[in-house]
Amino acid sequence: METIIRTFDEGDLEEASTIMAESFEAKFTRLADLSVPEIAELSVHLGISYPRPFHGYLVAQTGESVSGVIVLKWKGQDRLSMPMRWRKARKLGLWNAVKTLFGMILLDTSPKAGECYIEHVAVSSEHRGMGIGTMLIEEGERIARRSGLPLYSLYVAESNEGAVRLYQSLGFSIDKRVKSWLTKRIFGIPVWYRMVKALDQEIDDRR
Ligand SMILES: CC(C)(COP(=O)(O)OP(=O)(O)OC[C@H]1O[C@@H](n2cnc3c(N)ncnc32)[C@H](O)[C@@H]1OP(=O)(O)O)[C@@H](O)C(=O)NCCC(=O)NCCS
Fold first, then answer.
1. What's residue 202's pLDDT?
2. What is the topology classification, in CATH, of domain 3-206?
């Protein structure tokens, strides 16, 4: 079945947020006692899953299904502010909503000028290992280059060895090893890698 990468569309919200919820279930369930569909719903209400398209928000489509999602973030990006629907979020449990929001704020990163940061990348479990994550990251790289951003970056848990290998195979290298007692306590993730890929160098090499 053919996979294409395209801009997120409003009709993709349910599938895209389910993929994110499923991919980050281990993190979410440390914060809230919820099922994958409930996590997906909560993430929409809290504005963690973005309901509207913007430049740098892409999905993979395999056949008729959304199979993956990538969200890029850079300084000066034109993103609509996402409303938080607290009343709806509370219906999934006030404490669940508060803890999830706190956790997401903790993981939030503000990229520096010139940096294209991968905020999320996830592929649905039944589509993993088929090259879709690679396609999403490579398309993100094209957007970064076209937007004149010389650095492509992300954070990944040191323990997520498969993902670290994938990023290394795509040209990222470890820039920093960051320890956090807070994320250790909250998510069970004591160490993160900041991984980067310089994009200007490769353009020079092609000349
Ligand atoms: C990481 C992720 C996006 C990769 O997507 P994908 O479509 O499976 O990736 P690809 O098919 O393009 O590449 C496969 C490569 O990914 C690596 N990989 C990533 N996660 C892996 C895992 N959990 N187990 C084994 N290998 C993994 C392997 O190196 C594999 O290479 P191989 O096929 O030569 O063994 C996907 O596994 C995912 O959504 N994981 C859960 C969420 C997550 O960890 N996101 C990254 C957080 S920074």
1. 53
2. Aminopeptidase (3.40.630)
3-state SS assignment for residue 42: helix
Per DSSP, 146 falls in state H
Q: Give the HSE-up count for residue 40: Cα atoms under 13 Å, Cβ half-sphere.
A: 15
**What is the atom index within ligand 1 of the atom nearest the CA of 128?**
8
- Answer yes or no: pTM beyond 0.70: yes
Closest C-alpha residue for ligand 1 atom 16: 166
Name the residue at shortest CA distance from atom 12 of ligand 1: 131
Ranges 16-20, 68-72, 157-161, 197-201: which has the least confidence? 197-201
Q: What 3-state DSSP class applies to 103?
A: helix
Lowest mean pLDDT among 47-56, 64-73, 74-83: 74-83
Minimal-distance CA residue to ligand 1 atom 24 = 162
